[in-house]
Amino acid sequence: MRYFIKVFELGNMTKAAATLHIAQPALTQQIHLLEAELGVPLFIRSTRGVKPTEEGTLLYKHAQTIVRQIDNTKAILHRHDNPVSGTVSIALASSTARMLALPLIHQVKQRYPSVILEIVDLPSADLTRQVLQGRVDFALTPDQQEIKGMVLKPFLVEELLLLLHADTNIKKRRVNIEDIKNVPLILQFAQPFTLSNRSCLPGATPAL
């Protein structure tokens, strides 16, 4: 299954074989065996590489969860050797990953050497869906909306800085959402729902 995942992600048998450190014929044979076992073609081959079939795309949606469950099962069977072990996957937005990924990896490696930490870098809009679909164990998201079937816990407080023209009539050193609710704003990403959820003004619509 790991071989299939790598071929799917790279779209090329040669690159996948090099990444997996195995011979390409051996990798090709393993993919053929998987297709024979499942009874469906998983890839369309061409001189430019491979493209997943509809069945291959469907399998990929479940493959990462399957692999993670296998790793966790192995860890449970050997937990007498390593009290804390297994694979933990966490989804982070790109901006968050740049700040937290390396420190988090170092901390986990030092405190839990038998734990495999997988960090998935995704757009903010995809974080919740990854958790709901079971592809990751948890995610750090700026969205504060309650979602059925999920537990939302505060993790950290982010300080936002407001950049204003010198002629503005807002002179306070610290402002809240109510102070700027009628001020036209320019944001890096147009996500009014995120700003509204962070405020204490239900139903407020920022002027973006």
UniProtKB/TrEMBL annotation:
This is LysR family transcriptional regulator. Belongs to the LysR transcriptional regulatory family. Keywords: Activator, DNA-binding, Transcription, Transcription regulation. It holds the Pfam family HTH_1. It comes from Advenella kashmirensis (strain DSM 17095 / LMG 22695 / WT001). InterPro entries: LysR_HTH_N (IPR000847), LysR_subst-bd (IPR005119), WH-like_DNA-bd_sf (IPR036388), WH_DNA-bd_sf (IPR036390). One of its GO terms (biological process) is regulation of DNA-templated transcription initiation. Residues 1-53 form the HTH lysR-type domain. The keyword Transcription applies. Signal peptide: none annotated.
